[in-house]
Specification:
alpha+beta, elongated, transmembrane, 32% helix
Length: 231
């Protein structure tokens, strides 16, 4: 019997490596990565100069020159000052309307300073009595006065602000700076009122008396009597 021919397996096509274009892309990418890594390395060693970010933030100051509006001479001796801190909690809402709709609550921490001074410009004609023979001085001064509290905005800040839904929508279409100003004024008023009962006036009287006694003692006076009129 004739033998049947064994079937011949189809020839496997030879594996093709990456094309020339693919090899070129790989080579270019490798060279680019090598250049970038070299630049970062040289920049880290301060070999290459630094380059500014072309998209960095820029601030342009177009403010006008400062205008001096007034000037006055002061005859005050600032004898004491006090630094105070107050927490202001203001809430503004509408009656019979839920707070989640119409509501504004601000929690603000205010820090301010109050100065206590003696105004030497308010001295009367007979306020100073000098006896050069006995080296004595009698001086009657007006009572100490307190200035309005000056808020330190670098130490004052808003802790929390809650607004209702409709209030937030309304604020998106208008800007009301008076509300924030009212918070500042409330903090300033509370600090000013607190300073009146803080003992600053008594401290100012003591410091003023010590200053004048030391001043006139250096001028040769042996007895210096300082008193204050009633407020």
């Amino acid at each position: 019997m004739p033998q049947e021919a064994e079937p011949v397996a189809p020839a496997t096509p030879p594996e093709r490596g990456p094309s020339f274009f693919a090899r070129l892309l790989i080579f270019v990418g490798f060279v680019f990565a090598l250049i970038v890594a070299s630049c970062f390395g040289l920049r880290a060693m301060n070999v290459l100069p630094s380059f500014d970010n072309p998209f960095s933030d820029q601030t342009v100051d177009r403010s006008q020159p400062v205008l001096l509006q007034s000037m006055r001479d002061l005859h005050r001796y600032v004898a004491a000052d006090g630094t105070f801190q107050v927490i202001v909690d203001l809430q503004q809402n509408k009656e019979n309307i839920p707070d989640f709709l119409v509501n504004r609550r601000i929690l603000f921490v205010g820090s301010g300073t109050v100065e206590t001074y003696v105004d030497f410009g308010a001295l009367s004609g007979d306020a100073l009595k000098v006896d050069n023979e006995k080296k004595t001085i009698e001086l009657v001064l007006p009572p100490p006065q307190q200035s309005q509290a000056a808020l330190d905005m670098s130490k004052s800040y808003v802790v929390e602000e809650n607004r209702g839904l409709l209030t937030s929508i309304g604020d998106a279409f208008r800007s009301d700076t008076d509300k924030q100003q009212r918070v500042y004024e409330t903090a300033q008023q509370k600090i000013t009122e607190a300073a009146k009962s803080s003992g600053l006036d008594q401290r100012a009287q003591q410091n003023t008396q010590m200053m004048l006694e030391s001043l006139f003692a250096r001028l040769g006076y042996t007895s210096v009597k300082v008193s204050f009129t009633s407020p």
